[in-house]
Amino acid sequence: MDPAPAPYLIRINGHLGATVLSAFPALASQRHDAQTVLTGLLDRSALYGVLAEIEALGLDLLEIRRLTPEHTSSEPGHRGSR
Fold it and tell me: What is the 3-state secondary structure (H, E, C) of 19-56?
């Protein structure tokens, strides 16, 4: 049984263009320095699908983080407000 969707942060090296970002319609994207950060609610199978797409596109995956309600920002060391 697939667990309930959870918020994830996925950090990729480089700036992704609109064409590549279209491969991740369920995720929001932001640029941070020389990286692209994707965030969104994913269940296990959706997460594996995103990871497979990242690999198929040859992207440089830097980080995957399951976010908690207290930690919803993509900036290191920053905590969201309660």
Answer: HHHCCCCCCEEEEECCEEEEEEEECHHHHHHHHHHHHH
Token code pair at residue 58: 């040859």
Total-model pTM: 0.81
Conformation bin of residue 40: beta by default, left when phi > 0, alpha when psi is -120 to 50: left
Q: Are 56 and 24 in contact (CB under 8 A)?
A: no
d(CA 49, CA 71): 24
Write the pLDDT tens digit of every residue in 4-39. 899 999 999 999 999 999 999 999 999 999 999 999
